[in-house]
Structure formats: C-alpha cells, structure tokens
C-alpha cells in the first residue's frame, strides 16, 4: 500500500534540511592518539611490575575504593556475608594477583639402558622452582592489594593454575580472595592469607588456633616407564602397576615434606583446609621398543596447599567473643 505525502514539495524539503541541521555528529575518534595512550599505559604497568609494584591504574582503583568512592566487591555468597557481620568481620573488597611464568629449557632425564634395574625418575628442578616463584609473585601482588585496602586478612583464598606442559613451558597463576577487616583492629602491613572461609577464620580464633599464612608443598616429578612397566601393560592378568604407584607415592612424599618445611618456617603447629592436586601428563620419549611400540613416560605435578595455624593459649581465645544468632525463618 502506497502512502502519498501531503503538503508542498518545498515545505517538505525545508523540514528535512532543518532536521539534518539539528542532528549533531559524533566527534571523530583519534585512533592514533588512543593507540599511543594504550602503549604508554602498558609501558607504565610493565615498569611497575618489574619494580615489584602494582600497575598505576590498579593503585588508582584501590585508592578510590579505600576512600569509599567505589563500591566494594567480593566472591562471598549472601549467607556468608551476613555471617561475617555477626563475627565482626567487614569485607573491604575482592583482591587478586596473577603471574605468567616462562620456564626455560628443561633436560628430560633419559636412562641409557632399558633393563629396568635403574631408572631416570626424579624431580624436575626448574619446573618445581617455577611453581614456587610463580605462586610467590601472584600472592605478593594479592597481598599488596589487600594492604592498600587496609585489610587484616584475606579469606576464601583460591589459586587457579595452568599446569606445566613441556611443549610450551608456560605456567599461569591467578589467585583471588576477599579482603576483610576485623572491627577494632588496626590495618595489617602484611595481611594473613587463609584458604578457609570467613566464618571458619573466626571459629579458628575462638578455638585457640591462630591462622599464620599458607603452607605450600609442590613438586614436578618425571616418572620413567621401564621394562617391567611395559610387561605389565601387555599382561592378560589384573595387577597393580607397581612402578606407577611408587612414582605417585614418591611425588606426594616430596610435596608433603616441603609443606612441613613451610610450616616450620611459619612456626605453625598444623594445617587445616589442605587441598591435594595431582596432574599427570604423558610425554613421548622419542624411542620405541623392538616391536616398534612408542615408549611413553609421565610427568606428575603434585601441589599441596592449606592454611597453617598456630596453637595459642586459652586467654587469647577468650578475647574473641562470638554471639550465637539463630534465624527463626530458616
């Protein structure tokens, strides 16, 4: 259906011209200037990270958030946030730290013989050290953010990690948690990090267990496949792969020993909320058996992480007053 416009043609053209004149065009973007500003901002951030500091834009955001100019954020659930208020804990913001760590050349141990009487299974030093240093860098940046917010502790700490892969040699660490301030206490220069929740943090204090930090034990272990392992793989009978089982136990033993060393450094008497993570990756050795079958070894990555606690006297526990609150609607 056609609709014929009414009115004189000159009037219609005049009205259209006036409407066009009233429309203000958007200012043209200077893409080159924006690109240059982005490069300068990235250079300042990189320079700050190399000096062990936070990027300028992060400092600006945390400063505004600490003054109350920005709302605080957290990964707490509604019920957990309500419980924190009962325990005199005030969330001040969500904090994060990250580190992308590049590992150099790693010599994969290869046993010259294949008799099974000797093995090249051992801990890989370079990736193991990378697990520690990468974590330390990420955690240090998280602590810097928490200190700027005036926090006393970081609860609900979590660490996301991309495990070691020999093909790219890159390990990624991203840690996060909720920074909290205890009512009546001054801000801490180095807040305490806990992998437990905020409620459990106060319950530990009330029970006379003082959280003193994180205890970590980690190792990257190379498990070589020997002649006995190949014979068991081709057996027609159900049986335990004793070489693989022993390798897992050995890797776990190394990680547990390092966690105990970390506990001793912190002066802790125990660990709560410990997580055990095991990652296994197959690695082709590059040689084959007489039958032409490719030999595959394994790389085990074991990480043990928990909250280290220190037993304190009963007088300290009495200072923490927790008032039970019961919700009659639940």
Automatic annotation (TrEMBL):
It holds the Pfam family YbjQ_1. Transmembrane segments: none annotated. Belongs to the UPF0145 family. This is Heavy metal-binding domain-containing protein. InterPro entries: UPF0145_dom_sf (IPR035439), UPF0145_YbjQ-like (IPR002765). It comes from the Bacteria.
């Amino acid at each position: 259906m056609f609709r014929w416009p009414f009115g004189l043609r000159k009037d219609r053209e005049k009205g259209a011209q006036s409407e066009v004149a009233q429309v203000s065009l958007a200012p043209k973007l200077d893409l080159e200037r924006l690109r240059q500003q982005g490069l300068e901002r990235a250079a300042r951030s990189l320079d700050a990270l190399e000096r062990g500091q936070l990027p300028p834009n992060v400092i600006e955001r945390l400063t505004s958030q600490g003054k109350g100019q920005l709302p605080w954020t957290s990964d707490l659930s509604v019920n957990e946030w309500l419980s924190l208020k009962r325990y005199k804990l005030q969330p001040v913001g969500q904090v994060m730290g990250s580190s992308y760590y590049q590992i150099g050349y790693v010599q994969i141990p290869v046993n010259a013989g294949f008799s099974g009487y000797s093995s090249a299974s051992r801990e890989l030093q370079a990736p193991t050290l990378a697990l520690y240093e990468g974590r330390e860098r990420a955690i240090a940046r998280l602590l810097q953010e928490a200190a700027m917010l005036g926090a006393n502790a970081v609860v609900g700490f979590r660490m996301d990690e991309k495990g070691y892969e020999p093909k790219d040699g890159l390990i990624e660490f991203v840690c996060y948690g909720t920074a909290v301030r205890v009512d009546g206490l001054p801000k801490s220069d180095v807040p305490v990090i806990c992998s437990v929740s905020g409620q459990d943090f106060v319950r530990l204090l009330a029970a006379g267990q003082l959280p003193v930090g994180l205890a970590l034990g980690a190792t990257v272990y190379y498990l070589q496949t020997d002649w006995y392992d190949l014979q068991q793989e081709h057996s027609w009978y159900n049986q335990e792969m004793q070489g693989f089982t022993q390798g897992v136990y050995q890797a776990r033993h190394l990680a547990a020993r390092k966690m105990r060393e970390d506990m001793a450094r912190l002066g802790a008497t125990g660990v709560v909320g410990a997580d055990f993570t095991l990652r296994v990756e197959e690695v082709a050795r590059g040689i084959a058996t007489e039958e032409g079958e490719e030999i595959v070894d394994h790389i085990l990555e074991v990480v043990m992480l928990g909250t280290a606690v220190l037993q304190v006297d009963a007088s300290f526990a009495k200072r923490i007053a927790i008032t039970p609150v019961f919700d009659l609607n639940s």
